[in-house]
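can u do me a favor
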């Protein structure tokens, strides 16, 4: 959607309604885009997490088979809490471009509404 044209001179309320509808539709598209991006990121993270857990289990099994059994005196050692896992985020330029596109459209429509209300 490149431009929205509301070229009715007399019925300003009709023009205002059209512009408000355009704002509502653009905000809806922006929300859908954000949800899809969140869902994709979540799926990517879950797949990466599952692969990491599988790999970790495999490495633990290999290590358990290689090491000799522990003596009884070492079996009851308290484990120290680990530091939190940090996730490296990969930002895609496509989603940022989509977001800025929607923000730009919203700004343009709101500016048109402001000019419409000033001309009243």
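np, heres the sequence
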């Amino acid at each position: 959607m490149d431009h929205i044209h509301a070229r009715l001179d007399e019925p300003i309320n009709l023009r205002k309604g059209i512009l408000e509808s355009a704002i509502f539709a653009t905000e809806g598209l922006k929300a859908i885009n954000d949800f899809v991006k969140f869902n994709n990121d979540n799926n990517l993270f879950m797949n990466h997490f599952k692969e990491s857990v599988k790999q970790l289990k495999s490495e633990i099994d290999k290590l358990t088979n290689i090491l000799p059994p522990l003596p009884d005196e070492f079996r009851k050692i308290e484990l120290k809490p680990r530091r939190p896992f940090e996730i490296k985020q990969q930002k895609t330029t496509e989603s940022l471009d989509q977001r800025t596109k929607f923000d730009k459209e919203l700004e343009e429509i709101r500016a048109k509404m402001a000019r419409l209300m000033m001309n009243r």
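The chain has a mean pLDDT of 80. hope that helps!!
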